[in-house]
Amino acid sequence: MRVCIITDNSYIYDNFIRILNHKSHIDAEFDFYYTSWNKAFKEKYGENGLMKPVLLKNQDQSFFDSYDLFISLHCKQLFPEYMVKNYTCINVHPGYNPYNRGWFPQVFSIINKKPIGVTIHLMDAELDHGDILYQKKLEIYPYETSKDVYNRILETEMELMDEHLEEILNSTYTPVKMDSEGNINYKKDFDELCKLDLDEKATYRDVIDRLRALTFSPYENAYFYDEEGNKIYVGITLKKEEK
Questions:
Q1: Catalytic residues, which ones?
Q2: Given CA atoms 169, 121, 31, 44 in this order, what sign does their dihedral have?
Q3: Chain centre to alpha carbon of residue 4
Q4: How far are the Cα atoms of 105, 151, 158, 186 from residue 183, in angstroms, in the given order?
Q5: How far is it, in rounded angstroms, from Cα 107 to Cα 128?
Q6: Nearest to 15 by CA among 202, 203, 155, 173
Q7: Which end of the chain lies in a sparser environment, N or C, as judged by fewer CB atoms within 10 Å?
C-alpha cells in the first residue's frame, strides 16, 4: 500500500522515521509532505528529497487516487472536505476528544480543567472530529507550563503510533463514536486569552494557571499594555522542589 504522511512538526517527523526503521517488515510505501507555506520545514528538509511541500486544496484527483491512506501528524492545513469524504484520512490529534477540540488543547485544558491527552481518529468534515481509533489520557501537573504538557503529548503520540501503526495500516481497528460533541476552541479564543486585563480580579490559582497555559518558549503569548502604550509580554517559571 502507499501512504501519504503530512506533518509540520520536526519532532514528529524524525521520530516517525525512527519507528519505521524499527518496523522494516511493514509492506508499505510512505511519502512525506509538509505544508507549502512552512518556511522552517522548507529550510530544514527542502533539499533532502525526503520531504515535499504540498497544498492539499490545490491537488487534483490523481494525487488523492495515488494513495491508499492519508495520515495527518500535526499538519498546519485543513484537509479538504472532498478528501475526507472520499478517502481514508486519519488524524493524530494532541488532545483528548471530544474535549477542547481545535486550537492548542493543552492550553485550554490547563485553564478549564477538561481532560487532555492524545487521540487518533478518522477524519470527517468537522475540526478534530470523527470516530476514535485510539486514545490515551494524560495528567497535567501543577508545576508544568503549556510547553511541558505539549512535549509529553508529542511523546505519547509517538508511543501510540508505534504501538498501533500496523493496525492502522491494515484497518484492523474498531472505530468508536465520540460520546458527545464536547467543545471546540479557535484561534480567536486563544488570542483573547493572551490579552491580560490588569484590572481583572482573579485568584492566584487562576492567574498562575492562565500564565502557565500561555507560557510556551520561545513564543511570546500573554501580554498587557503599560500606561505609555507599550506592549509588555509575560511568562512564568515553575519549578518543583527537589526532595
A1: 93
A2: negative
A3: 18
A4: 10, 23, 25, 10
A5: 16
A6: 155
A7: C
Which among 199, 197, 241, 201 is positioned nearest to 223, based on CA atoms? 197
Determine the residue type at 168: I
> 225 in helix, strand or coil?
strand
Tens of pLDDT, residue by residue over 204-241, are: 999 999 999 999 999 999 999 999 999 999 999 999 99
Closest CA to 70 of 20, 125, 5: 5
* Beta pairing partners, 6: 33, 72
Counting as low any pLDDT under 50, the low residues of the chain are: none
User: For position 41, what pLDDT does the model report?
Assistant: 87
Helix and strand numbers (H, E) in the chain are 8, 11
Angstrom distance (rounded) from CA 99 to CA 117: 10
Q: At which residue does the C-alpha cell 519505521 appear?
A: 20
**Cα-based angle 95, 9, 159 (whole degrees, multiple of 5):** 55
Cα separation, 94 vs 73, whole angstroms: 9
Residue with cell 477524519: 123
